[in-house]
Amino acid sequence: MSGSTTDNAPEDEQSGSSETVEPSAETEDEKVAAVRRVSAAGRRWRAAQLAGCAALLAVALTGGSIAFGALRDGGAATVASSSSAVSPGLMASGDLDAGIKAIQAHLRTQPKDFGSWATLGLAYVEQARTKGDPSRYPQAEQALRKSLKLSADNEQGLTGLAALAAARHDFKDALTYADRTLGQNPYSERALSSRIDALVELGRYDEASKTADLADARRPGIPVFTRYAYVHELRGDVRTARRVLEQALSTATTPGDISYVAAALGQLAWNQGDYKTALTDYARALAADDTYLPALEGRARAQAASGDRAAAIKGMEAVVARYPLPGPLVELGELYEDRGGEGDKARARDQYALVDAWIALARANGVNADLDTALAAADHGDKASALRAARAEWARRHTVHTADALAWALHVNGRDEEALPYARQATATGYRNASFRYHRGIIELAVGDKKDARTHLTSALKLNPGFSPLGAREARKALKEMAR
Questions:
Q1: DSSP for residue 279
Q2: Domains, in order of start, for the chain
Q3: SS3 state at 188
Q4: Coil, strand, or helix at residue 245?
Q5: Alpha helices (H) along 381-470
Q6: Predicted model pTM
Q7: Over 80: is that where the pLDDT of 334 sits?
Q8: Whose CB has fewer CB within 10 Å in the chain, the N or C terminal residue?
Q9: Closest CA to 377 of 399, 398, 393, 395
Q10: Residue 483 CA from chain centroid, whole number
Q11: Confidence check: pLDDT of 268 > 50
């Protein structure tokens, strides 16, 4: 935190004045470089698409956003977060922007209110999550550190820093801040939730499970229920996960909570290949908030898996037109490739180029995007870059997702003997993930283990026959060739 803005209240973002933080010259240079790389890639795009993409990317130069997202589990969030990092009232009826303006106005008259600085920081984190604006992260950090400067180790400030660290994929720091908060208040719902998230994303599943049990005993409610469910899903206990999420949905009252929990139920059903239930759950989410991005994306994936490719493409095009996130961009690109019509290869390349742009802009705002890089580049980019990113992420944290990403990156680089132990580790917890099973089966086939390859490829398609537009096709092709 630097400069005089730390001692003054923020300016209204519509005024054109500085808010909580001014971007540094270094950050601006990184953003400019990111957009220039996109421009270079864009020269091969059609003119109409170039214009649309340029409009989405240009805002990075003025503190705007490229949507923030993650590539895993069909677009699920990186952590099993609650629907909001800020107060339910601030999120009610989608009034987060209005709430931020109200806090800014309050701080102009009460600049020493440490609680409001913390709330503003949390609101910026939430805005980055829901609206895809990574430029909010430096602003969030400055607001939160201002809060802690005014009142050292206050609970809101510490939990805000935990949420910010998790959003930037710095899960060690997230755990540190959560534990500092719990040292003061063992019943802090936000700190308990952040601790579960961090432990899950660090691959410390036994500790995450114990913390989820503790949180359920201390502070039962939607934030804890959703995390409790995810911990059970990671162990393959889908029945408990769904029961807990249904319980969470029955207690949800705000549109944000209803849409979040219903979409989580949809994702759980989709992972099991139950597309009818998934579509019903996504409809419940969209009835609460018809703009809720995870539900719109999930519905499109479920439509694709159900065989309604036209509706899926239309839906995913609408999603990426608003927020070009890595997950839906790759999904849309693969849907184009699977359709194989005139111009579809070029359309697919456009989506993959935008993934590179998103990653560059996310990194410019302090986000660790190595997992996104590894997953996207392995199939649709530079394979060597995919392996470097996967190794870097594995060095930071050992999870089923990083194990799978490293296994697949090694495979596409022709290093299947090295890949197999990681593929086995990715499937070791019992987590029911068709992509993981597919990757393991293909790697086993590459090392000559046809028996296990057949088992895992068949299992992937039985679990979720539409898990990927291209992956499912490749799994069927491999099984057919082995049957000859």
A1: H
A2: 1-23+79-168 (1.25.40), 370-482 (1.25.40.10)
A3: coil
A4: helix
A5: 383-396, 400-412, 416-426, 434-446, 450-463
A6: 0.81
A7: yes
A8: C
A9: 393
A10: 38
A11: yes
Residues 124 and 134: their CA atoms lie apart, in Å, by: 9
Nearest to 82 by CA among 74, 94, 91: 91
Residue 114 is predicted with a pLDDT of 96
Q: CA angle, corner 364, sides to 363 and 366, nearest 5? A: 60
Of 312, 354, 371, nearest to 336 (Cα)? Answer: 312
Q: What does the longest C-alpha to C-alpha distance in the chain come to? A: 77
* Amino acid occupying residue 172: K
Arithmetic mean of pLDDT, 322-344: 93
Tokens of 382: 């530079």
Q: State pLDDT tens for residues 94-135.
A: 578 888 999 999 999 999 999 999 999 999 998 887 666 678
Cβ(338)–Cβ(324) under 8 Å? no
In whole angstroms, give the CA distance from residue 374 to residue 182. 34
> Given the structure tokens 């890089």, which residue do they identify?
373
What is the rounded CA–CA span in Å between residue 243 and residue 239?
A: 6
Whole-angstrom Cα distance, residue 432 to residue 4?
Answer: 51
Q: Which residues contact 226 (CB under 8 A, 6 or more apart)?
A: 80, 81, 82, 245, 248, 260, 261, 264
3-class DSSP state for residue 161? helix
Helix 326-339 to helix 344-364 angle, to the nearest 10 degrees?
A: 170
Q: What is the token pair recorded at 300?
A: 């499109």
For the chain, the first-to-last Cα distance in angstroms comes to: 65
Tokens of 410: 């090694």
Q: What is the spatial distance between Cα 268 and Cα 245, in angstroms, rounded to a whole number? A: 10
53: tokens are 């993409």
